[in-house]
Every structure is written in structure tokens, then in C-alpha cells.
Q: What sequence folds into this?
């Protein structure tokens, strides 16, 4: 455990991406099995402990530390692991278990025995080791290491390419013994079943109309609507069917009505939507069914799910990702003709001659049908993971703007843990200001200093780490769309709210804008939002 703690600490203190990769590669080379496999799971977010929650860790600390002192310290530091590491009052110097030993404890001990076991380990650990224990237990690393960086280190360890790792990654499980055996030449490449595992998705770049369009020849491109659902990948086999979200989570159990209709053999790429007869409802309707353990018959009837397909990765057992998009689409059309399904259709292609004409189609589709915008794909593009420049673009509809009042502020995380940088905004409804959404992005460091100072001097109430402020500061907030929401007093929630800067509406205007409520000129937009 000492070695793992020092490893995490080194990654935290190293800003260089290349140096992080070097550290991880060396750790994988030196650490024994299964410790290095569990470390890999921690770095890639593939390890969690059902019975270990932040509340349990706080309760453990409050047995040793004055509650007021802990809350004040946590509020100031902004990171639970760092707070516990510094405030824990004991250090007996006893030996800590290995990384795999600690993980076995956290995974198998019943709730009643977890708290004393964690307390004992915190007492035996140094501050750095305490920090690592809490980071491990919560999975909230925030050390500047993405899953891609960890996989790049694996590739370097075994002399493979990142694509080699990605092609098998989602068919593997901790502690990855067969993966390391293959990378070190001690075993064959791990066998995966193409329909049971998630294959990394091909993603799109935002299009820059001024820079990109002059170099793009319209006949070379395929245009489709950008549907307002969630990206999914269907894996269809004879014995098993899966549906993965874009992050690789299997969400098939949440949509039994859809999964029961699926047949054939393929891996398909598309958009999950809610609606009858292939007519999509709003994203808010689909959201009613997301992240649920069980789905009632009434909910399945009220919000039936279907998938609008737009690509194909495997036709049966044949990998066709190397084929151009135009050929993959023909294979997809033929496959659906052989396997007709009341819950699957294909995203239509939009015919166009030039970018100006397509721009008019885009605006009309957003205004009349609520489309998110357009997708532009080179007809000769092969299917590659991630965002490959110049192949796929997203041309989103124009964002909406509203003037909103700052109501609440909370400390941020990581490098912003010392600032009040998480904001709740509201608008007028009758004679009161009611919340419509939260925003975290779009502010420069200099602007955060100004707002943080203002928040501290205009606080009228405190609710734990949250401060309510006087209703005087107004921001111009950009958002994608507005939806009915019973969780908000306003009855409305903004989707993807942010400052104008982070949405990239106009790079030449000031990033954010604020003024007093007395000078607020956003009345018409307010009326539009809340009706």
C-alpha cells in the first residue's frame, strides 16, 4: 500500500502528461500481480465498493474529530481525502495491508466491520497513505490521469498500439491477469466476444463554419439530423444482447421493452430515443427512464423506447469498421431488411447541394422540430474510435440565452476548491426568484476571484458548504434547451447551462457579464422561459 500511495502522490504532483505515462508504465513493470491490475482499475474508474460511501468515511472521522472542526476544515480544503489525511489525529505506525489485500477488505467486509477496519488503517497510515486510502475507497481520484493515459501506458509496456488495447479493453475485468500476461509475452491476446463488450465509439468535432466549410466539398459528405437522445451501441448475438451507453455502461436492463424485440447478429451504433411510431418525444421524456433499476409497465407504455440507427461496426461476426461509411450504411440497410424490427429504424440522409442551403435546413429543423442540429460525416470515413479530425463534425443549433440571477454558490473541486465557483441561477416567477439550473464553467481565474470576493461579502444565509447570496448579481447564461422539471420550484430546468464563453457563442465578446438586478434588461427572455 505504501508503494501505491507514493505512486498516486507522484502522479498528482506531475503536470507533464508524458511523465505521468512514464510513471504508470514503470509502476506496471515493477508492481506484482494482482496489485498492478487493481491499480489499473483504480486509474480507469473500473473499481467501486458498494458499502463504502462518503458518509461512512465522514462518520469514521467524526468518531475521532470535533464535527465543527471537521466541517470547517472540509469546507476550506474542498477535498474529502485531503481533509481526512491532514485532520486524522492518530498514527501508530503499524503495517498496512497490500493494495490487493485492502481492496479485498473493502469489497467483502460487511458494513458493521468496515468502519473499524478503515479507522485502524487510517491510524496506521502516514498522511499520504491516508489520502490514498480515501481516494481508493471513493474512486474520486482527481489526479490528472484519464483512462486514455493509463491505456497509453499499457501500450508502451507491451509494445502495442492504443488501438490494440482499446479493441479488447471492454472485454476485460480486474485484476487483468490475462491482459498483463499478453503484454509481457507470457500468454495469448485475451479472447473477447464482440457482442458482449463495448467497442469505443467514433466521435465528432464541432464544425467551424468559417475555417472548415471552404475545404469541404459537399458531394463528399453525408448529412443527418443530430437526434436529441443518448448515444448507444447495440450488441446482438444468439445467446446475449447488450446495449451500452457512450461511456461503456450496459443499460439493457433499463429498457426491457426494447431489448425483447431485438434479433439478428450485429454490433450497431445509434441514438436511443423515446416515442411512438418512430416519432421522438423530448429528451425529458427519455430522461424519465434513464438510471433506473426497474421500469414499471406504465413507464414502458408512456415512454416506449426505440433506437435510430446510423452505423454498423459488425455485420454478424464480420468486423466492417475498416469499410467506408457509404458501404457500412448499405450493409446496415440490408441487415435491417433481413431483421425488421418495430423498435429499430435508420437515420435518414439529408440531401443538399451547398452549405448555405444546408444551413437553412439546419435552422428550420431546430425551430420547427427541435433537432439539436446536424451531423456531417465524410462518406469515405472508416469507423475509428475517438475524435478523428476532419472526418465527422457536429453542427449544433444556436444556443439560447437568458439573463439569470445568482442565488447560491458553493466551493468547487480540485484547483478551484478555494473558490466559490459552482453557481445556482434563478429567474423571476411572479414576485419571487426561483432556481432553474447550475453552472460550473465559462469563467476565467480573474473573474472567479471577483465573484468569490462578492459571494463572501454578500452572503445572507449558509446551508453547510452552500451560501445563499443577496439577489443582486445577474449573469448572461447560455443553455441548450429548457424542459419541465418537477424538481425545481420554477417547474423548469435548463439543459447544459454555462456562461457564454464556454459555449463558444462569440469568442470576441466578454466571457461573462454581470450587473445589478435594478438594471436587468432580460425581461422578455424571462417571460419566454417561464411563460
A:
Amino acid at each position: 500500500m505504501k508503494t501505491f500511495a507514493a505512486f498516486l502522490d507522484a502522479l498528482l504532483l506531475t503536470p507533464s502528461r508524458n511523465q505521468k505515462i512514464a510513471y504508470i508504465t514503470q509502476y506496471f513493470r515493477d508492481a506484482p500481480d494482482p496489485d498492478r491490475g487493481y491499480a489499473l482499475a483504480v486509474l480507469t474508474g473500473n473499481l467501486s465498493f458498494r458499502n463504502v460511501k462518503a458518509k461512512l468515511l465522514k462518520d469514521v472521522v467524526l468518531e475521532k474529530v470535533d464535527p465543527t472542526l471537521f466541517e470547517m476544515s472540509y469546507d476550506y480544503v474542498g477535498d474529502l481525502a485531503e481533509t481526512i489525511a491532514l485532520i486524522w489525529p492518530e498514527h501508530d505506525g503499524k503495517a498496512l495491508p497490500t493494495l490487493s489485500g485492502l481492496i479485498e477488505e473493502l469489497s467483502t467486509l460487511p458494513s458493521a466491520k468496515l468502519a473499524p477496519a478503515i479507522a485502524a488503517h487510517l491510524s496506521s497510515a502516514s498522511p499520504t497513505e491516508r489520502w490514498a486510502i480515501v481516494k481508493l475507497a471513493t474512486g474520486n481520484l482527481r489526479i490528472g490521469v484519464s483512462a486514455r493515459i493509463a491505456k497509453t501506458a499499457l501500450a508502451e509496456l507491451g509494445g502495442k498500439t492504443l488501438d490494440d488495447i482499446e479493441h479488447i479493453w471492454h472485454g476485460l475485468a480486474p485484476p487483468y491477469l490475462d491482459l498483463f500476461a499478453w503484454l509481457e509475452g507470457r500468454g495469448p491476446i485475451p479472447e473477447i466476444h464482440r457482442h458482449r463488450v463495448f467497442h469505443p465509439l467514433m466521435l465528432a468535432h464541432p464544425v467551424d463554419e468559417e475555417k472548415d466549410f471552404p475545404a469541404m466539398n459537399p458531394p463528399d459528405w453525408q448529412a443527418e439530423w443530430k437526434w436529441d437522445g443518448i448515444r448507444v451501441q447495440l450488441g446482438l448475438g444468439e445467446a446475449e444482447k447488450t446495449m451500452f451507453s457512450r461511456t461503456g455502461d450496459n443499460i439493457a436492463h433499463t429498457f426491457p421493452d426494447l431489448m425483447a424485440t431485438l434479433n439478428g447478429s450485429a454490433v450497431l451504433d445509434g441514438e436511443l430515443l423515446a416515442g411512438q411510431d418512430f416519432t421522438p418525444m423530448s429528451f425529458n421524456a427519455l430522461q424519465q427512464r434513464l438510471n433506473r433499476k426497474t421500469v414499471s409497465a406504465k413507464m414502458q407504455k408512456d415512454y416506449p423506447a426505440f433506437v435510430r440507427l446510423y452505423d454498423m461496426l459488425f455485420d454478424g461476426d464480420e468486423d466492417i469498421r475498416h469499410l467506408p461509411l457509404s458501404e457500412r450504411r448499405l450493409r446496415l440497410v440490408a441487415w435491417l431488411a433481413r431483421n425488421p424490427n418495430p423498435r429499430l429504424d435508420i437515420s435518414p440522409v439529408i440531401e443538399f447541394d451547398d452549405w448555405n442551403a444546408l444551413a437553412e435546413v439546419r435552422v428550420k429543423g431546430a425551430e420547427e422540430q427541435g433537432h439539436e442540429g446536424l451531423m456531417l460525416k465524410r462518406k469515405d470515413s472508416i469507423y475509428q474510435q475517438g475524435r478523428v479530425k476532419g472526418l465527422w463534425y457536429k453542427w449544433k443549433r444556436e444556443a439560447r440565452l437568458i439573463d439569470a440571477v445568482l442565488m447560491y454558490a458553493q466551493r468547487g473541486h480540485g484547483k478551484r476548491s478555494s473558490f466559490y465557483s459552482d453557481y445556482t441561477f434563478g429567474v423571476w416567477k411572479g414576485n419571487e426568484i426561483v432556481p432553474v439550473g447550475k453552472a460550473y464553467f465559462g469563467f476565467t481565474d480573474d473573474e472567479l476571484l471577483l465573484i468569490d470576493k462578492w459571494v463572501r461579502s454578500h452572503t445572507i444565509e449558509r446551508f453547510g458548504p452552500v451560501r445563499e447570496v443577496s439577489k443582486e448579481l445577474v449573469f448572461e447564461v447560455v443553455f441548450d434547451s429548457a424542459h419541465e422539471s418537477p424538481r425545481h420550484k420554477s417547474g423548469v430546468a435548463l439543459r447544459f447551462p454555462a456562461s457564454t464563453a464556454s459555449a463558444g457563442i462569440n469568442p470576441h465578446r466578454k466571457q461573462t457579464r454581470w450587473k445589478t438586478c435594478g438594471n436587468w434588461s432580460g425581461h422578455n427572455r424571462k417571460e419566454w422561459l417561464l411563460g
Remarks:
- Residues 355-369 form the longest helix (15 residues).
- Confidence is low (pLDDT under 50) at residues 501-531.
